Amino acid sequence: ASKSLWIDVGATSTRVVAIQGGSPGPIEESSVIPGGGHAVRDRLSKALHGRFPGFALTDISADRIKEHLAHVFPVMQSCPLRIVFEGKSTVVNIESLVNRACEPLVDEILQGVRSVVSGCPSDEIEEFLERIVLSGGGSRMRGLADRVQQDLRREFDDFVTVRVPQEPATLVANGALRWAHFTEEDAWEISLFSFA
């Protein structure tokens, strides 16, 4: 059965799961790291407020800025942002603020991969690391897949391969729906009480 690691960079957390034969492995082969896209947004918003005290920014606006400008090294890009501050419209380059807000996400992902790999049989680790799938809305961040692959290759070896599917934001939800269709009706019961 083929093995892979799935990394779902979601809004509130990053989940790493070892998949074997088409289904998740035991709980020790998964990891949930709080953070995700909202943490990137919050760090960016805080940095903008620090640089421009009194600058009003909603979570929706901060999310739009993040979605348009988010990137991690080695991607280097200018991040021009037109703001109205203290009664004046001006364009500022917020590249350093965006970079500082996004970089911790790489560490979250690496932490999750290390945790999951440590629970895998050592003779199967290479097979898992050869097939890493980066999904979720955060996987669209420019440079993220290349950076995660580069850092994992430095730590493990050149066999590490990270891919981003065509529709990364909906992939996990669609997979769960597909899995649900094959689940027996009695498996949906959630026991609220335990009787002796």
Concise structural overview:
The protein has helices at residues 36-51, 59-69, 95-118, 125-129, 144-155, 171-181; strands at 3-9, 13-20, 23-24, 30-34, 80-85, 88-93, 132-135, 162-163. It is α/β, with parallel strands linked by helices. It is elongated and about 60 Å long.
Description:
The structure is a single chain. With 196 residues, the chain is an alpha/beta fold. The chain is built from 6 helices and 8 strands; from the N terminus they run ββββααββααβαβα. It has helices spanning 36-51, 59-69, 95-118, 125-129, 144-155, 171-181; strands at residues 3-9, 13-20, 23-24, 30-34, 80-85, 88-93, 132-135, 162-163. The strands form 2 sheets. Strands 1, 2, 3, 4, 7 and 8 form a 6-stranded mixed β-sheet that branches. β2 and β3 form a beta hairpin. α1 crosses α2 (59-69) and α1 packs antiparallel against α3 (95-118). The radius of gyration is 20 Å and the shape is elongated. The mean pLDDT is 86.
Topology:
Blueprint: E1 3-9, E2 13-20, E3 23-24, E4 30-34, H1 36-51, H2 59-69, E5 80-85, E6 88-93, H3 95-118, H4 125-129, E7 132-135, H5 144-155, E8 162-163, H6 171-181
Parallel strand pairs: 1-7, 7-8
Antiparallel strand pairs: 1-2, 2-3, 2-4, 5-6
Helix pairs in contact: 1-2, 1-3
What keyword list fits this structure?
alpha/beta; two-stranded antiparallel ribbon; 6-stranded mixed beta sheet; 6 helices; 196 residues
Distance between the termini: 39 Å
How many helical elements?
A: 6
| Backbone shape | elongated
The H-and-E topology, N to C, reads as EEEEHHEEHHEHEH
Count of β-strands: 8
**Helix proportion:** 40-55%
How large, in whole angstroms, is the Cα Rg?
20 Å
Report the mean per-residue pLDDT as an integer: 86
Binned strand content = 15-25%
Helix/strand/pairing category: alpha/beta
How is the main sheet built? 6 strands, mixed
Stretches with pLDDT under 50, minimum 5 residues: none
